[in-house]
């Protein structure tokens, strides 16, 4: 029976209706506030590939002043972990890829690593997770087979020190770990990774109560497919949505579609009970002329609308009741990162700690946030030459391969610079580096120059041979005859 039903006495009915006319709006306000507070959580990645960043103490003050309560770092630098002590900021630390082999083979190393890099700071520094490696499947050093054993040894060390309930162990994957991602419902992991890696890894998460870390960048998908993906769809702005032909669900933003593709991949191998944390996502505020959509306006719209979408609660269409924890990439522009201009311009702040653009980071700041569409800024199309390639960069140079060019490594560059550029191409650059893995078609010749050339060319071709996409800080250059590295054939398109 309703509290003010007509079956009540007329006198009671009158006072009841009067009472609820006053109280009900207040209850609805409380309900909406409660719903708002039940949303997800926003964190930030604190990368330090730069030579002009403020001290760790100043960075922690910045985090506190902005109301940021979660931070992810890419190492276990003592200065950073000490500066975070006593702040209440939750921290995710990283065991780097180059240590996976040792952590997998030697439990004693894992115990020592946890003792030195976690136990020495926790709980004063509130470490809540350890990222074992980062995007390991595209690591050119082929450390994939060491990932799960390393994770298990690190977890065993946490158990030994009675930290396993407080600190979770996971590893960030890139979306290149998916074999299929469109339509979203067809999401599937790469077949060669399912049995050796994903099944045991997801089983480990299930048993330990951990979660899968995912790095998702709608910017890359938009930039490469702007002819079919609308900018509004990528930036969480009003749009008609996209219906998934497999499950009938309608998606109104690319971020949700990407995350649900991972959920679908997990469900396909019967691990739909494992949760996800988005450990990296972002949008560059500046790029090269060929980097479509990289602008301050678009970066502000993507990150601002993403924060609003996460903090106000509600999951994805496939998992509507699961709130997300999302880490924005990145805290600062990092001037020593290799690759195109965009790589050095993902920061929310300049090194002098001023904002690149103004967005909210918490519920209080969200009250005054409004996305201000600027009439399509950042949505300019690059003119194409008569041969259909961006900027005419595939012009021939006196050889008999009209319209074809390739990108190769500069063998005269120092080894460290080539290696850094190779790591970028196969990692954040999303080049197809599977053919240069051991046993694959282009592994031989097993030289840094040959492997870098294949990766650079993959990145170059995937970016439609755009001007600036074969630079890598001077570590690469364009040629107009097919490269010759053993029997390996370099593709001219993807």
TrEMBL record:
Residues 379-395 have a biased composition (Polar residues). It is found in: Cell membrane. Transmembrane segments: none annotated. Keywords: Cell membrane, Disulfide bond, Glycoprotein, Glycosidase, GPI-anchor, Hydrolase, Lipoprotein, Membrane, Plant defense, Signal. The keyword Lipoprotein applies. Residues 369-395 are annotated as: Disordered. Its EC number is 3.2.1.39. It is a lipid-anchor; GPI-anchor. One of its GO terms (biological process) is defense response. GO terms for cellular component: plasma membrane; plasmodesma; side of membrane. It catalyses: Hydrolysis of (1->3)-beta-D-glucosidic linkages in (1->3)-beta-D-glucans. It is an enzyme of class 3 (hydrolase). Residues 405-490 form the X8 domain. PANTHER family: GLUCAN ENDO-1,3-BETA-GLUCOSIDASE BG1-RELATED-RELATED (PTHR32227). Belongs to the glycosyl hydrolase 17 family. This is glucan endo-1,3-beta-D-glucosidase. It comes from Oldenlandia corymbosa var. corymbosa. The lineage of its organism: Eukaryota, Viridiplantae, Streptophyta, Embryophyta, Tracheophyta.
